[in-house]
Inverse folding.
């Protein structure tokens, strides 16, 4: 039995046969419903057959335009990467937020304190709220930033730009002045590209 097969067998034994497990590209992914997210994560950390002591990473994902086909399902997910030093294996955990308009999932800061800034980043860039997070505020964008820049419906040039105004002697915000344009690399253009021929 391979290490990944052993991991899947232990996950089914600890969490029950009805869990959503997939294996691809040398990794196991566990999809957890939001109502079981906290409890399952605590079992992943504490169960002696699993012992995922370390949360390596946590990221938000916007599935609204995923792959080559229209996405069927919830738009926002939180993806967590775990490591068991005891058993020398890794696991990806995915949890979809139930409401696309107001994505909320429980915070895992009490389970793995290392996810604190990762959850703040997912909140800042995707607008995913982490219920129970002790200090959920922006971490990468400016305090007055409007929107969430990693959402696929966020405008490429943004909503506002800032510049220093010499007359006011301070930084000011103003509507974006950049004209949107298509940039196609020369290597894939036809000879008559943009000439109307």
């Amino acid at each position: 039995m391979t290490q990944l097969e052993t991991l899947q067998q232990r996950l089914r034994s600890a969490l029950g046969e009805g869990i959503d497990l997939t294996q691809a590209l040398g990794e196991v992914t566990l999809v957890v419903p939001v109502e079981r997210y906290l409890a399952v994560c605590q079992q992943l950390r504490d169960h002696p057959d699993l012992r995922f002591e370390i949360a390596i990473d946590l990221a938000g994902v916007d599935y609204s335009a995923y792959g080559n086909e229209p996405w069927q399902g919830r738009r926002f997910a939180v993806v967590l990467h775990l490591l068991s030093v005891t058993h020398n294996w890794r696991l990806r955990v995915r949890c979809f937020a139930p409401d696309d308009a107001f994505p909320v999932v429980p915070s895992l800061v009490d389970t793995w304190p290392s996810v604190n800034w990762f959850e703040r980043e997912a909140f800042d860039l995707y607008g995913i709220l982490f219920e129970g997070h002790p200090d959920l505020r922006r971490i990468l964008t400016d305090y007055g930033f409007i929107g969430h820049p990693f959402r696929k419906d966020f405008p490429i040039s943004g909503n506002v730009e800032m510049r220093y105004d010499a007359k006011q002697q301070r930084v000011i915000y103003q509507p974006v002045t950049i004209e949107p344009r298509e940039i196609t690399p020369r290597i894939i253009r036809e000879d008559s590209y943009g000439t109307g021929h």
Q: What stands out?
A: The mean pLDDT is 90.
